[in-house]
């Protein structure tokens, strides 16, 4: 209930600030199973747009442990299906918690395989979780403003979903298996970006001249 309420509040706020976003290929989202929704992390509000685009599905997501130290913020995050993760030293719970949720609830999972907003390096968490929970990975991309100023200038926002990535053909999530899943995700991201805009090139804010 709280997640749906927060999502509606977010929908109104981003509409007022930026206008109507374009959500493309929503038919790619699985209807009868949980899944892991993955995307390159390009700005702090792209998870909001992903959750809005995939509505009415509800999601859990990871948040850095420090945010849970504030009691008010901890209440909001917990009610919004977030769970804490130690960024410097993530323990087994970073895998076990989402696997349990994917198996035993109606919550799917939003993940950014690259971790930080300005990293192109994929990490193996999404692959391990998908394999253990036996769920598909759905790739998506956000294209739009990456600065707050751009958001308020109502620059166009597009979220596009791709075909689910099934990994049942990969027997083990060893280094080779994880690399194969990462390759499939990266290929999907590149394909989706080109479909939205053939000339798209993502330039992180801290790399702009």
UniProtKB/TrEMBL annotation:
InterPro entries: Plipid/glycerol_acylTrfase. Residues 35-145 form the Phospholipid/glycerol acyltransferase domain. Pfam families: Acyltransferase. GO terms for molecular function: acyltransferase activity. It comes from Vagococcus proximus. Keywords: Acyltransferase, Transferase. This is 1-acyl-sn-glycerol-3-phosphate acyltransferase.
């Amino acid at each position: 209930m709280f997640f749906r309420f927060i999502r509606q509040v977010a929908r109104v706020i981003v509409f007022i600030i930026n206008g109507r976003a374009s959500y493309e290929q929503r038919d790619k989202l699985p209807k009868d199973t949980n899944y892991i929704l993955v995307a390159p992390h390009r700005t702090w509000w792209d998870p909001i747009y992903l959750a809005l685009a995939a509505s009415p599905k509800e999601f859990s997501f990871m948040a850095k442990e420090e945010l849970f130290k504030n009691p008010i913020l901890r209440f909001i995050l917990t009610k919004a299906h977030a769970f804490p993760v130690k960024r410097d030293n993530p323990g087994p719970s970073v895998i076990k918690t989402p696997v349990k949720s994917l198996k035993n609830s109606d919550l799917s999972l939003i993940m950014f395989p690259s971790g930080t907003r300005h990293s192109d390096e994929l990490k193996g968490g999404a692959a391990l979780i998908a394999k253990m929970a036996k769920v598909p990975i759905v790739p998506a991309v956000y294209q739009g403003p990456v600065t707050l100023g751009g958001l308020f200038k109502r620059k166009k926002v597009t979220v596009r979903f791709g075909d689910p990535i099934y990994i049942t053909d990969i027997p083990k999530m060893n280094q080779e298996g994880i690399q194969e899943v990462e390759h499939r995700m990266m290929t999907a991201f590149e394909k989706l970006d080109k479909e939205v805009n053939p000339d798209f090139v993502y330039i992180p804010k801290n790399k702009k001249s």
